[in-house]
């Protein structure tokens, strides 16, 4: 991804972007704003190199003079792909309100602004300046604790049977959030297509600073008084994560050696019991609905990380290593 190397430096990349910008601005009739990026073909870059670098001694492009027109055209094509991918696949998932916090992804993105093409760069600056306003437009979900408590008392298969017959009145908080996000075509129906679901998950990508801390959404509990300034959000996150391993949802199950005795304590099988209270993904959860459940679980874990919210999730070491890309 356009990394600085002994062959190409960041300064050269920035000069190359300025070169093509100047060339397209000069080529427009009359000279004004640069032509669209899609008008910048390799032939245009080669012509710019000949006219503005090799044809005259231009002090603005001194670093590029040793480069051949073909090399400049190839490099610009790479920068164009880099700029496009940054905006399509990276920036939508980055909290730009943290751009001034060293060590964050938003902070690192700011260091590559010089390598972004002009149209993308203008968009980046607008997003950077307006992100603080956007992050306060976080969604608000109304959740029903009483319904969730009733759902926990029923087995998963029993609840699914009742839902298919239209008699289910009890739903977990996790399922209520799925409904609020609109991940399914209808109540108990088929999941929407992946693109539609990804668009819904995007509403959870922003955070807001409140008196009680950082939050990604606001919560109203049905029949309860209270204004969410962070406390209800954190409480709902704890409840949502706890539901992942309940009998009613069963996305997470105990590790195979996580047996308990009649008193509810983990059995002493061997010299120690380290790790026997951990959870792994349920290998039997393979239905389309289960896969959507795992998607929302991942989205909530991302919310917990971005909002710095501790959650009661005791994952097995082998699963944690897989999540962070370490060898198991």
From TrEMBL:
The keyword Cytoplasm does not apply. Residues 217-328 form the HECT domain. Keywords: Ubl conjugation pathway. GO terms for molecular function: ubiquitin-protein transferase activity. InterPro entries: HECT_dom, Hect_E3_ubiquitin_ligase, HECTD4. This is HECT domain-containing protein. It comes from Haptolina brevifila. The lineage of its organism: Eukaryota, Haptista, Haptophyta, Prymnesiophyceae, Prymnesiales.
């Amino acid at each position: 991804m356009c990394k600085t190397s002994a062959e190409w430096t960041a300064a050269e990349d920035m000069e190359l972007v300025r070169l093509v910008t100047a060339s397209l601005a000069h080529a427009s009739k009359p000279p004004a704003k640069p032509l669209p990026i899609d008008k910048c073909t390799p032939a245009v870059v080669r012509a710019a190199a000949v006219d503005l670098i090799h044809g005259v001694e231009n002090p603005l492009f001194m670093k590029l003079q040793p480069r051949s027109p073909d090399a400049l055209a190839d490099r610009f094509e790479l920068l164009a792909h880099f700029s496009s991918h940054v905006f399509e696949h990276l920036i939508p998932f980055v909290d730009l309100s943290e751009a001034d916090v060293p060590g964050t992804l938003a902070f690192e993105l700011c260091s590559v602004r010089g390598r972004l093409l002009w149209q993308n760069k203008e968009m980046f600056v607008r997003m950077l300046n307006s992100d603080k306003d956007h992050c306060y437009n976080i969604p608000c979900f109304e959740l029903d604790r009483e319904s969730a408590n009733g759902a926990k008392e029923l087995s998963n298969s029993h609840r699914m049977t009742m839902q298919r017959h239209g008699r289910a009145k009890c739903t977990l908080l996790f399922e209520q959030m799925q409904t609020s996000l609109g991940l399914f075509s209808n109540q108990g129906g088929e999941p929407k297509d992946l693109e539609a679901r990804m668009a819904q998950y995007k509403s959870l990508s922003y955070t807001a600073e409140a008196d009680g801390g950082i939050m990604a959404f606001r919560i109203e509990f049905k029949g309860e008084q209270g204004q969410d300034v962070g406390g209800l959000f954190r409480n709902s996150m704890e409840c949502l994560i706890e539901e992942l391993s309940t009998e009613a949802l069963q996305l997470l199950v105990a590790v195979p050696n996580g047996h308990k005795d009649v008193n509810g304590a983990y059995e002493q099988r061997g010299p120690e019991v380290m790790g026997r209270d951990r959870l792994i993904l349920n290998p039997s959860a393979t239905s389309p609905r289960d896969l959507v459940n795992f998607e929302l679980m991942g989205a909530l874990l991302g919310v917990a990380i971005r909002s710095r919210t501790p959650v009661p999730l005791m994952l097995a070491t082998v699963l944690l290593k897989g999540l962070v890309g370490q060898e198991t």
